[in-house]
Write a structure and sequence with these properties.
Number of strands: 7
Strand content: 5-15%
Distance between the termini: 48 Å
Bound molecules: zinc ion
Number of helices: 10
Strand order of the largest sheet: 2-1-3-4
Oligomer: single chain
Helix content: 40-55%
Radius of gyration: 20 Å
Order of helices and strands: HEHEHEHEHHEHEHEHH
Structural class: alpha/beta
Shape: globular
């Protein structure tokens, strides 16, 4: 959070969407006033999911680059000089925060960045955050689980903050950003309902999944699913042999059967667990920390959440005795 230079109070964040909704209804559509070839705002987003949201809110007025590209792992990312240059030229930098992008403050310093840096998790409130458990091996990892976007209600907070950040950087485009954010928020609300409806078909006792790292804590809490994982909230620290053995015993004890490989994680651990439990990993990968490099199956946040939910619920239902 060291590089954070600009903030909006939580009270403002809370009421903007309702205000924006009324405003969007009252205002006829306006032209952007900027040729589509010349973006009004240059944005750098720390990773692909944030970049998608900036595109949804910014539309043609905004040019956005993701530092960690689709398919990349932000936990172990190392910025290249060309990316420091991009940051140096940006009008706004969006990051998620909560220790997810541990490399960000040094990158902003290297780039001698003087513009706005908006940490999107700010304002979420302590009750919305999940404390991460220590792994007991002295590995440095975030004290809070940073994967907040796995709960769609937190995505609504992020999109709201992105609209505010773009409005500050480009007041002339503000009406458009608010309209786009309001429309996208309706899609997020629909997505949240779809995920709840999909899990409602699965008996609570069967909602158990095994995956690579603890990236689904917010999804678990929001949608009532139990996730077991050999690796902690960061992919940086290796799972210990005892940790894997403990997990294998837990899987057998709890009767969890749906086993998944994540797109950003090494499949080796899940293959080992498959061998030791006799379970077969799902052919579908889960997308936790990055979108897919191709449009399918998870080219956008909405697609990612639908893909994960379909893959998870189908696997769990298929494993029922
Ligand atoms: Zn992660």
């Amino acid at each position: 959070m060291a590089g954070f230079k600009w903030r909006i109070g939580p009270a403002v964040v809370g009421c903007v969407l309702s205000w924006a909704f009324g405003h969007a209804l009252a205002q006829p559509a306006q032209t952007a006033g900027v040729a589509s070839s010349t973006p009004a705002v240059r944005v750098v987003a720390s990773f692909s999911i944030l970049a998608d949201w900036v595109r949804q809110v910014g539309g043609t007025r905004v040019e956005v680059d993701a530092l960690v590209a689709p398919g990349g792992d932000a936990h172990v990312f190392q910025p290249k000089p060309v990316q420091a240059k991009k940051v140096g030229q940006a009008d706004v930098v969006f990051s998620s925060g909560l220790g997810f992008e541990g490399w960000m403050s040094r990158l902003l310093k290297t780039a001698a960045y003087k513009g706005r840096h908006v940490v999107l998790a700010q304002g979420l409130g302590d009750q919305a955050l999940i404390r991460a458990e220590a792994d007991g091996h002295g590995h440095a990892h975030p004290a809070t689980d940073p994967h907040v976007w796995q709960d769609v209600r937190n995505a609504q907070h992020y999109v709201n903050r992105i609209a505010l950040g773009l409005c500050e950087a480009d007041p002339a485009g503000c009406d458009q950003y608010r309209r786009n954010a309001t429309q996208y928020d309706l899609q997020l609300q629909a997505l949240d309902s779809q995920i709840r409806a999909a899990w409602a078909r699965v008996p609570a006792a069967d909602r158990k999944v095994i995956t690579s790292h603890e990236a689904f804590g917010y999804y678990a809490q929001a949608y009532g699913v139990r996730f077991l994982a050999p690796q902690g909230v960061s992919t940086e620290s290796e799972a210990s042999a005892q940790g894997v053995a403990r997990l294998v015993r837990q899987i057998k004890r709890e009767g969890a059967k749906a086993l998944f490989v994540e797109s950003v994680s090494n499949p080796r651990l899940i293959e080992q667990i498959a061998r030791e439990t006799g379970l077969k990993a799902s052919p579908h990968r889960l997308f936790s920390d990055a979108l897919s490099p191709t449009p399918e199956p998870a080219g956008t946040y909405l697609q990612m959440m639908r893909h994960n939910t379909d893959a998870l619920t189908q696997a769990v239902l298929a494993q029922r005795p």
